[in-house]
Write a structure and sequence with these properties.
By secondary structure, this protein is mainly alpha-helical. 73% of the residues lie in helices and 0% in strands.
Length: 275
């Protein structure tokens, strides 16, 4: 697949990719792009509306610049969503391929553990981890990894089982091909594509899930900027005539989530061999 093909056949997915790359770049360059320190409070800026001179998006309930906090909040929201999902995808690829290729007692044990994670409510896991480790990035990262691994492992396992039963695998075995050759040369390319598609779509849900954890006080802690935490703080200010404090970070969450979903749909239509 080329970028040109994506732009021609899936313009919405291509636009989503451009938007996500732009937002990730802005988040990574937050120390240089944010006009102010996100923790700095300005006298007279409390609950200031968007368009206030010198502060494009106004101020929050403590007089901090909203634009700066949105940029820094994206750094934590996107970083804490994308990196754990990438790690979970690598782990799931290894577990799913091993379990799908070596069908036996070890495979059954791996998949039963995956089923247990499916059945365990992740919010309860986050609450338990916060009681042991305290609320913060570590709790969020572990919770997201444990949330994603069951889904991705199941996808890889199912695709590996389908590929293993095809005639070309039996032919390779008859020719004396090693397990490593079959796994990495033949099965891996066919399994990675559906994993990439599903992982991209899953990222949108993880951004929302992370925001929910922060909203509940289980994620990033104040005074650090985070979109979910900003929504929680801003919800209390809506009755005071400052809806922008909650709506701006909420809009950012919705836009990023939709962009990941649209990109995942476009990649699915282009890459998924089962469609």
């Amino acid at each position: 697949m080329t970028l040109r093909r994506l732009m021609v056949q899936q313009p919405l997915a291509a636009a989503s990719l451009v938007l996500l790359v732009l937002m990730i770049a802005i988040a990574m360059l937050a120390p240089w792009l944010a006009p102010y320190d996100p923790l700095q409070a300005f006298p007279g800026l409390r609950l200031a509306a968007p368009g206030t001179p010198g502060h494009l998006l106004g101020g929050d309930n403590q007089g901090r610049d909203m634009l700066s906090r949105l940029i820094w909040g994206g750094r934590s929201a996107l970083g804490a969503s994308i990196l754990p999902v990438i790690f979970a995808a690598v782990v799931s690829l290894a577990l799913g391929m091993f379990a799908g290729y070596r069908h036996g007692a070890i495979s059954a044990f791996i998949m039963r553990c995956i089923d247990m994670l499916f059945a365990f409510p992740m919010v309860l896991l986050a609450i338990g981890l916060s009681a042991v480790l305290g609320s913060g990035y570590l709790t969020v990262i572990i919770t997201l990894i444990c949330s994603v691994i069951p889904y991705l492992t199941r996808v890889v396992y199912s695709d590996t089982r389908v590929e293993v039963q095809k005639e070309y695998v039996e032919a390779l075995r008859a020719q004396g091909a090693s397990h490593a050759d079959i796994l990495f040369r033949e099965l891996l390319p066919n399994v990675v594509t559906p994993l990439l598609v599903y992982t991209t779509s899953l990222l949108g849900g993880m951004v929302v899930f992370l925001a929910g954890l922060s909203f509940l006080g289980l994620g990033v802690q104040p005074p650090q900027a985070d979109w979910g935490r900003m929504v929680g703080e801003g919800a209390q200010m809506m009755i005071l005539g400052a809806p922008h404090i909650a709506t701006l970070p909420a809009l950012a969450i919705v836009v990023v989530s939709l962009a990941f979903n649209w990109l995942g749909d476009g990649l699915r239509d282009l890459l998924d061999p089962h469609r």
